[in-house]
Amino acid sequence: MALSKTLLASLVISLFMVHRSFAELSDPMVIMNMVINNSLTDDKIDCDGACDVRCKLSSRPNLCKRACGTCCARCNCVPPGTSGNYDECPCYRDMTTHGGKHKCP
Predict the structure, then answer these.
(1) CA distances from 102 to 62, 68, 80, 86, 91 (A)
(2) Structural contact between residues 95 and 103, judged by C-beta atoms closer than 8 angstroms
(3) Distance, CA of 80 to CA of 78 (rounded, Å)
(4) Mean pLDDT, the chain, as a whole number?
(5) Distances (CA, A) of 97 to 30, 35, 86
(6) pLDDT, position 42
(7) SS3 sequence, 2-43?
(8) Helix residue ranges per DSSP H, 26-104
(9) Which residue has the higher pLDDT, 61 or 7?
(10) Contact call for residues 68 and 62 (beta carbons, < 8 A)
(11) Whole-number Å distance between alpha carbons of 7 and 2
C-alpha cells in the first residue's frame, strides 16, 4: 500500500515537471531568447580559443580560463576583448556566483 502511494506520488510529480517544461518551451519569448543565445543551434564556439583571448592579460590566467570555460560552455558565447563588452553576451553577463558576484571574467 505504501509502495503504491509512493509510486503514484512520484508519477504525479514527474508528469507535473514534464508539463511545466513543455509549457516553458511553448512560450515564444523563451524560444526567442534561446535562439538569440544560440542554445537551440548545434554551432558550438571554440571555448578554449575564445577564453585564451579573453584571459591573456589576466593576472591569474588559469583561474580566468577555468571560469571563462564554464561560462562559455553554458552560454556558447564569450564577449570580445580582454574585459568588458558584456552586452555582447547577456547570458555571460548575467551569470553570478552564490555570493552575487559576476562569475564570468
Answers:
(1) 17, 11, 17, 11, 11
(2) yes
(3) 6
(4) 79
(5) 23, 25, 16
(6) 59
(7) HHHHHHHHHHHHHHHHHHHHHHHHCCHHHHHHHHHCCCCCCC
(8) 28-36, 47-54, 61-75, 90-94
(9) 61
(10) no
(11) 9
Q: Is 104 left (phi over 0), alpha (psi -120 to 50) or beta?
A: beta
Q: Which residue type sits at 1? A: M
pLDDT of res. 21:
53
* Number of neighbours of residue 80 by Cβ within 10 angstroms: 11
Between CA 77 and CA 71 the distance in angstroms is 8
With cell 554551432, the residue in question is: 43
Backbone angles phi, psi at 6, to 5 degrees: -65, -45
* The total number of residues written for the chain in this structure: 105
CA distance linking residue 76 with residue 46, whole number of Å: 9
